[in-house]
Design goal:
alpha/beta; Nucleotidyltransferase, domain 5; 2 domains; 5-stranded mixed sheet; about 40% helix; globular
Length: about 325
């Protein structure tokens, strides 16, 4: 009886699940992503999260059939490495993540891009099930994109789906990636926090940092933005409005090229703000959509916070040893 481990490695959280062969969740654990140290510290936190999820599932970690990981950065599954995961502490170089996790968990480990596994999960198990082609948009610390075209995940030469780095303003703001005018420069939660700090330092009033301190958070997490919007904070509204506009432009531009059946909106901020903001992204997309007489479905990701980790278990199933 197979038991799969799945890990979604994010900028603020590590989500682990253990599932059965049908990818039903038997146990889960969520740990904060370390904010200091380096890749080895992150790997230790990942191992801890899987062990906790396995314990909840009544499975010893060394009984896992295989483990899948969705990670940011440049992921090389063949080499088992993750390189330049810049939203994670001290992760500039290349780190042998599969080898380290495999040695600790005594299971085969498969690696893939975090957004690709989340998109695959929504396609096979979630909101994308009725469709043949979907564009996944994951609005969180950054803004990631994933593509399933005619039933198959499309990775290009390894860099497909980078919707956060579609240019929405050629002479626009500097993105955390170092380029100019990317959608993520306006919509990524990391970039939004930088902008909020600049405005607050210049004297603009906001409750964002007050809520952050009260909650004991080191960053402006998705829940803080949600609370600030609920308190009708002017700066929070201004920055989220700009984010929605930028996402709408990038999504429409992607659809003008790909003509996918559906767009699935997920990620920490996407899920927190929910259906009203999915509707706003749909509205922001429409003026820029060429085939506006037959727009695609624009849907909220249905697997919630577990989507990335569930997608990683789909990857684990591919990596599972075949017994004759």
């Amino acid at each position: 009886m197979a038991r799969y481990g799945g890990i979604d490695l994010g900028g603020t959280k590590i989500q682990a699940v253990v599932t059965d062969e049908a990818h039903a969740v038997l146990g889960s654990a969520r740990h904060p992503t370390p904010t200091t140290g380096g890749p080895a510290d992150v790997a230790l936190a990942m191992i801890g999260a899987v062990r906790e999820a396995a314990e909840q599932a009544g499975v010893a970690p060394d009984e896992l059939t295989a483990v899948g990981v969705g990670s940011p950065g440049v992921v090389d599954d063949e080499a088992g490495t993750v390189t330049s995961a810049r939203n994670l502490p001290g992760w500039e170089g290349s780190y042998p993540l599969a080898e380290k996790l495999g040695a600790a968990l005594l299971a085969p480990v498969g690696l893939s891009n975090d957004v690709n596994v989340a998109t695959q999960a929504e396609f096979e198990l979630g909101a994308g099930k009725p469709f043949r082609s979907i564009l996944g948009v994951f609005w969180g610390t950054g803004v990631g994109g994933g593509l399933v075209l005619d039933g198959r995940l499309w990775e290009g030469r390894g860099g497909a789906g980078e919707i956060g780095h579609m240019v929405v303003k050629s002479d626009g703001r500097k993105c955390p990636c170092g380029r100019i005018g990317c959608m993520e420069a306006y919509a990524g939660r990391g970039a939004m926090e930088i902008r909020a700090r600049e405005k607050a330092d210049a004297g603009e009033k906001t409750v964002l940092f007050e809520i952050m301190e009260k909650k004991g958070k080191p960053r402006l997490a998705s829940g803080i933005w949600e609370r600030a919007l609920a308190r009708d904070d002017k700066l929070a509204h201004e920055l989220v409005d700009k984010a929605v506009e930028a996402i709408g432009i990038a999504v429409a531009s992607s659809l003008n090229l790909l003509d996918a059946d559906a767009v699935v909106i997920g990620g920490g901020l996407g899920l927190r703000l929910g259906e009203p903001y999915v509707e706003r992204i749909r509205a922001a997309m429409m003026p820029h959509l060429f085939a506006d007489h037959r727009p695609p479905a624009v849907l909220l990701a249905s697997l919630g916070d577990l989507g990335g980790a569930l997608g990683a278990t789909l990857l684990a199933a591919e990596r599972a040893p075949v017994h004759s």
